[in-house]
Amino acid sequence: MGGPSEPPPSLDTAPSEPRYSADAYLEDRLGGLNLTFEGLRGRDYVVLNAARDSGVPVAIVLAGGYARETDDTAAIHAATIAEAARLARA
User: Fold this and answer.
1) In a domain, 14, yes or no
2) What is the pTM of this model?
3) Mean pLDDT within 54-63
């Protein structure tokens, strides 16, 4: 699995604050969802863009992520924050 196949139509029925972590990474020892870095970037775009367009607040926390390489976990968290900042400026 490389990434999300379709964006959600809206966040109308979603939790008031989306929450997810770096556990979806394919090299995560506990997650098991097998997303690549590209897939995680796609997930971030879909979730953060839908939240912004729906007026849903998002809190980003450094939680989860048990990649074999610690640098991978740090890069995943940094990429999520960068995507949120990019969308906030758009």
Assistant:
1) no
2) 0.76
3) 85
